Amino acid sequence: MSGQLFKFGINKPKQEETVKTITETVSQEMTDSEFKEFRDEIYKLCGIYFTESKKYLLEGRILKRMAANNIKTFSEYIRLIRNPLKKDELDRLYEAITINETYFFRAPQQFEALENIIVPEILANKKNIVMPTFRIWSAACSTGEEPYTLALIVLESLRHKYPNVSFQIVGSDINQSVLETAKQGIYKEYAIRNIPKPLLSKYFKQEGNLYHLSNDVKKLVKFININLYDPNQVKLVSQCDVIFCANVLIYFDLPSKQQVVSYLYNALNVGGYLFIGYSESLHGISKSFKLVHLPKAMAYQKE
Amino acid sequence: MNEIINKLKNSIIAEEQIEIINSIIENKDFDIKLIDILVGKLSDPNRGIKDAVYRALINYPDDLKELVANKVAPIIEQRQIELRNLAGDILLKLGIYSSKPLIKYLKVEDFDVRKFACDILGLIDNGDNVDLIIQLFDDNDQNVVLSAIEAVGNIFSRNEAKVDKNHILLSLFELFRLNNDNYQPQLIDTIGKIGGNEAEDFLLDIIRNNKDLYLKINAIDSLATVGTSTEICNSLLNEMHLYPKEIQTIVLKTAIAIAYRLESMPEIPPSTREIARKALLDSDLNISSAGLVALGENYNNDDVEYLVKFYDKTNYDTQQYLLFNLLENSNNDIFAKFIDNYFDCRINSDNQSQNLEFLITLQSIWENVSNEKQHFALSKIIQTIIEKNCINKTELIEILANFDINLLEQVKQIILDEKNNIEDIDDIHTLFNNIFNLK
Amino acid sequence: MSKTILVAEDSASVRKFIILALKLKGYNVIAVEDGMIALETFSKEKIDLLLTDLNMPNMDGLTLIRNIRQDKEYSELPIIILSSLSDERDIKAGLEAGANSYLIKPFNQKKVQYEVSKYLE
After folding, report:
1. Residues 366..425 of B with a Cβ closer than 8 Å to C: which?
2. Which chain B residue lies closest to C23 (C-alpha atoms)?
3. Which CATH superfamily includes the segment(s) C4-120?
4. C67–chain B nearest CA distance, Å
């Protein structure tokens, strides 16, 4: 910003008697150099970048993992995650540092655009193919709400309109344990709160306060463990017609964002679309896509 | 390296070329021999390739950047707008290394190219080439002249240019006297960016004596970085209501900027406070910050709704500042109202992670806050969050645990009391036990 | 309710001059630095008029205009080009892309105010 005129900060001195926080109680606060070490290691592994302001967050999450492993020092823990034989712990760490907030029909405007504009457009270009496929990839799908939402849309409207099309839905995440949860297809109130009632009763069975997804829906989705920052893993999914990658890029820094988006570009068919989060933008990140302005939503097209 | 070059030259598949270039970037394989072929691919019709080449070229190591700039600069003479803009973007990102390569384009025949080169130089030059840019004040194309005036201002706003200020100011004052109303606003802007006593006098003269309201407003805006007297600050504050409504926030910005710089913040009357609130919602960072500064450290009831909207749009440091004032320097009911409004916006919306971030930011200033205020704040937050059901319970408890372990019993009790809203009493018990076991 | 004008212009100074000129006339102004951000803004705000430069990084003015005109909701949106490109071919291209008016730079506050008022008053 040209010539920022004001700078904000807090200048009240710390109190004499500080309140005990949990980190102090365990007499462990991450030093700046320890923070940097963790930050760089995590960045190398998966592209997620912890800014200075997120130090508290990272500290808390790491402490949890240390407690779970009965480890007393940060250096011991970082050795643990660097150990190639300890993939399990790495997975737990990924689970701890990613925010897995998701629910069904989180982006209704995007799904509407998909159903009414994008699918018809792409399939029109495939009409010379006898049994065309339509592949949708939900990247960073966490516990599966997004890919299952897509499956609901396919089952409820797209299948009837396009009976000879094979709709394929892939859900991926860096974290294996959330994928295991996704495969179960069992959800609580919070996750299903946006589902239109008719769909809820048609495709879910309620047992107590849990909602079980029907097998028809579960069958439509394939789950794969993919680290988006690893080009070899990203290649596991290709020739996609649509990719959803919402609320993931915000955890990366600019170079890692650019990398991941470039991999996603390569994973798309020509004419395919990329959806990112409603409040996100590829501005400054990628010049490869054509920005397409849809009613109430925006998407990026590979030309 | 030769293998990579051959692969790039021979591949006809876009994705393959993109992959090759991506691995060049990831492995930092920036070789001098690659530059020509990469620059050549800037005109590839495939946008994915263009994007990859762009990222590769701007990431070249410093010792090769000028070479890259030399190869890219000629592209600004091409007619195709998109390609020209892409080249301009690269030259911009290469920064100071693009200066020497661009200079010769200040003298070409095509006035569009002269202007384009001048624009970029204005944004990257360190002052070494100001003399060459000033020569364009005599250009026969008005847009080139304007570009040169703007470029000089941009260069000065980034560094104290090595050329004598007064010499340039005199040229600019003279241009102003020509009364070409195409030039006036840009001249005012640049003179303001150069700064100094003469510049300040020039701006004050326009503000006090010029009949053209538009020029007055431009001068007021520019005075923000140059003004040095409380007198002008006070008169702006007193006369604010005389300006058109939409312009008042700009007048406020300048008055507050001067006061802030002089470290003498005046009392803001209630009518001005209203303008400050409006300023909070402006998309211009300086205007919204001025609004915040003008509101002081003790917020009142009418401020809250604006502070809530402002909070989400601003950066971390400002958020900390705001929260601290709300907590420590404002009345309890003001803080309570803020919390009610803030979480109200978030029921059923997509903002779980934003709620968590709010708590984390609060935690970062926690130790600066007095004990009584801490107790009040924590109870209010827990109560509100549970009432509005807007944070995942496990996340909430984990973060609250970090605030104050002594309050944990209180937290536990409040949560258990709200049994109707909680799905997993068992989970919560387990979680609490785990937290306590960490001791 | 005051009308909202979206301004797409990559020079920060010119952006400022346009904002001041339009605010003086009571308009609400959103100013962005390139066509891509401008297009994204259309999804988030109600826009009553677009004032755009042609030479901008990330998405130039012509592409922006074409994209906007593709949307039924904005087929009637007043679009004014403000550009230093004065070649006849550029003017023709601009109007063919869907612009209603073409103003040649240098920016002149009275000309811009007048042109905008033609569409919004």
Report:
1. none
2. B246
3. Response regulator (3.40.50.2300)
4. 15
Instruction: State which of B60, B84, B109 marks the end of a domain.
Output: B60
Q: Do A291 and C42 touch (CB under 8 A)?
A: no
pLDDT at position B415 is 61
Range of the domain at B37: 1-60
pLDDT of amino acid A22: 43
What domains lie within chain A, and their CATH numbers? 22-97 (1.10.155.10), 108-301 (3.40.50.150)
CB contact under 8 A, C70 and A287: no
Residues in chain C closer than 8 A to B86 (CB atoms): 57
Query: Residue A24's pLDDT is what?
Result: 44
SS (H, E, C) chain B: CHHHHHHHHHCCCHHHHHHHHHHHHHCCCCCHHHHHHHHHHHHCCCHHHHHHHHHHHHCCCHHHHHHHHHHHHHHHHCCCHHHHHHHHHHHHHHHHHHHHHHHHHHHCCCHHHHHHHHHHHHHHCCCCCHHHHHHHHHCCCHHHHHHHHHHHHHHHHHCCCCCCHHHHHHHHHHHHHCCCCCCHHHHHHHHHHHCCHHHHHHHHHHHHHCCCHHHHHHHHHHHCCCCCCHHHHHHHHHHHHHCCHHHHHHHHHHHHHHHHHCCCCCCCCHHHHHHHHHHHCCCCHHHHHHHHHHCCCCCCHHHHHHHHHHHHHCCHHHHHHHHHHHHHHCCHHHHHHHHHHHHHCCCCCCCHHHHHHHHHHHHHHHHHCCHHHHHHHHHHHHHHHHHHCCCCHHHHHHHHHHHCHHHHHHHHHHHHHCHHHCCCHHHHHHHHHHHHHCC
Q: Where are the domains of chain C?
A: 4-120
Below-50 pLDDT ranges, chain A: 1-2, 15-27
Percent of chain B whose pLDDT exceeds 70? 86
B52: chain A residues, CB-CB within 8 Å: 262, 288
Residues of chain C with pLDDT under 50: none
A40 CB within 8 Å of a chain B CB: no
- Domain total for chain B? 2
Q: How many CB pairs under 8 A join B and C?
A: 76
pLDDT in tens, A231-281: 999 999 999 999 999 989 989 999 999 999 999 999 999 999 999 998 899
Query: A163 vs chain B: nearest CA distance in angstroms?
Result: 31
Which of C40, C46, C65 has the most A C-beta neighbours within 10 Å, making it the best mutation to test the interface with A?
Answer: C40
**Residue A299: closest CA among chain C residues belongs to which residue?**
C40
| Mean pLDDT confidence for B290-302 | 96
- The verdict on a CB contact (< 8 Å) between B250 and C54 is no
- Looking at the domain assignment, is residue B324 inside a domain? yes
Tell me which of B60, B81, B107 is where a domain ends: B60
**Residue B439: inside a domain:** yes
> Minimal Cα distance from A52: which residue of B?
B316
**Structure-model confidence comparison of residues B304 and B431, the more confident one:** B304
Q: Is residue B328 part of a domain?
A: yes
ipTM for the predicted complex: 0.95
The pLDDT tens digits of the residues spanning B70-93 come to: 999 999 999 888 899 999 999 999
Among candidates B26, B260, B363 on the partner chain, residue whose Cβ is nearest the Cβ of A259: B26
